[in-house]
Amino acid sequence: MSERAISRGGALALLAAAPLVAGCAFDPNAIRVGSKNFTESFVIAEIYAQALEGAGMHVQRLFNLGSTQIAIAAMERGNVDLYPEYTGTALIDVLHLPPIGNSREAYDVVSKQFAQRYRIVWLTPSPMNDSQALATTRAAAARYGIATISECARAAPQLRLATIQEFLARPDGLPGLQRFYGGFHFQEVRTYDIALKYRALLEGKADVASAFSTDGAIATDDLVLLRDDRHFWSAYNVAPIVRAATLAKRPHVARVLNAVSPKITDAAARAMNAAVEKDQADPADVAAEFLRR
Amino acid sequence: MPDFTAHIVQHLALAFAALALALAAGLPLGLLAAESPALRSAVLATAGVGRTLPSLAVLMLLLPFLGVGVTPAIVALALLAIPPIVIGVDLGIRGVPVAALDAAAGMGMTRVQRFARVVVPFALPVSFAGLRTATTETIASATLATFIGAGGLGDEIVRGLQTDDPSLLFAGAAAVAALALGADAILGFAGRYAGGRA
Fold it and tell me: What is the pLDDT of residue A88?
């Protein structure tokens, strides 16, 4: 998720700094909820924070932690009690293990390893799976008969790809797709600013775009995701990860968050990401709205 | 390296297409400004404002009208190249000595003959300086075309940034600088040659 960290971090840094400063007064009884520095992490961390507040707990927000490494270090030192993390990120970027496409398996591996190595507990994961993906328009999917990544690999010589440079260089980007699926020699590959690649699709200047599966644009622009039929990409389900020491003192934290997580679906995440990024809504308001439903 | 070479070719193609478009628009506008005092202030004021607009802002401002791709990139770059060309042509023509024009008229030259044999040779060196400025600026700004899918050396720089590869970033930036300096040197040489003949 490093791209998101780069492209989405800046705009919200100030927004997130406000509660950080306001919440500085140390409260030993507060649950300290962290987030990383991109929209989806802000929104889901807000959902966790407000759910805990709704259950009568006092929450301190430590949002906008710069990277996964910083977030994990803050947990280990006891500066943060919990934050939303993705199974795929934990697997690949923290544990340095190979990707696992199956959501259940990925969760089992990271939850076991984190308990042993970091004394961190993975609570119930959400169905939301923010993995890498290829997106296309409904019209292009019908015209070229592509519903899966395999079909896209074969049809690639007729297709134009809109993407970002990072996707062309990363082993889990185009080079990996070519190795794993074969084919994937696009008629044309053009790179854009991350916020503009969907525009190329909508303007008819590209047929397929690289994507994250919970990008707000997928909902607002009515795009379709190609099914990763051979499971090249890892699962990236989100879950609250909590210090074991915190849970020992406050077991009800698990009960509250486990009741919320099943409601966070791909569709819900896309709508919330779009509300923040397209309509400039405050992540806290978006989270509150989600919890009211 | 084939990618890098392709990006250099793309970069130059973008810049030269934009310069051709800018010349096509800038030359008549410069002539208009030089010939008509009434229009001069309006044209030069617009050109002055145009020169101060950041390239990236122009690219993004055009987005709703032209979308993404090669064409909007060329149009945006051309818009940025027009002001120095207009200003150069206007300055060059207004710098033609009145005495030379009077002498040409006295010799019985027609308006067209005076323009071709007096105005153009006198105005060329200063106008050429405008074109030179436009060329270096356009080659440098073409780096931004990467953001709207138009390729060029900006692709190399962005890849260097996104994959944390400073050598790639530096190679892309150095190539842009070398192209801009090279074009400037060639035009400088050509300008001296043209000026020498006049």
Answer: 94
> How far apart are the C-alpha atoms of B1 and B7, rounded to whole Å?
10
Q: Which residue of B has its CA nearest to A169?
A: B163
> Chain A within 8 Å of B67 (Cβ-Cβ)?
yes
Q: Which CATH number fits domain A2-129+235-292: 3.40.50.10170, 3.40.50.1580, 3.90.76.10, 3.40.190.10?
A: 3.40.190.10
d(CA B30, CA B28): 5
Token pair in block for residue B147? 């953001």
Q: How many CB pairs under 8 A join A and B?
A: 56
Does B6 contact A at CB distance below 8 Å?
no
B146 vs A168, A169, A191: nearest CB: A191
Q: What pLDDT was estimated at residue A2?
A: 41
- The mean pLDDT value of chain B amounts to 91
**Domains annotated on chain B, with CATH:** 2-197 (1.10.3720.10)
Q: Where in chain A is the domain with CATH 3.40.190.120?
A: 132-225
Q: At B63, list the tokens.
A: 């987005």
As a whole number of angstroms, the distance between CA A106 and CA A104 comes to 6
- Reading the block at residue B95, the tokens are 């710098």
Q: Which of residues 82-111 of B touch A (CB under 8 A)?
A: none
Please name the fold of domain A132-225: D-Maltodextrin-Binding Protein; domain 2 (3.40.190)
Q: What is the pLDDT of residue B195?
A: 61
Cβ contacts of A164 on chain B, cutoff 8 Å: 158, 162
> Is residue A203 less than 8 Å (CB to CB) from chain B?
yes
Cα-based distances in Å from B104 to B35, B108, B126, B196:
18, 7, 21, 20
Test mutation, A165, A186, A205, A207, chain B, max B CBs within 10 A? A165
CB of A7 within 8 Å of any CB in chain B?
no
Low-confidence ranges of chain B (pLDDT < 50): 197-198
Residue-wise pLDDT tens for chain A (293 aa)?
444 433 343 433 444 444 444 444 567 789 999 999 899 999 999 999 999 999 999 999 999 998 888 999 999 999 999 999 999 999 988 999 999 999 999 999 999 999 999 999 999 999 999 999 999 999 999 999 999 999 999 999 999 999 999 899 888 899 999 999 999 999 999 999 988 999 999 999 999 999 999 999 999 999 999 999 999 999 999 999 999 999 999 999 999 999 999 999 999 999 999 999 889 999 999 999 999 98
Our measurement of the distance from residue B42's CA atom to the centroid of its chain's CA atoms, rounded to an integer in Å, reads: 20
How far apart are the C-alpha atoms of A70 and A74, rounded to whole Å? 6
Residue type, A142: A
Whether A230 has its CB under 8 Å from any CB of chain B: the answer is no
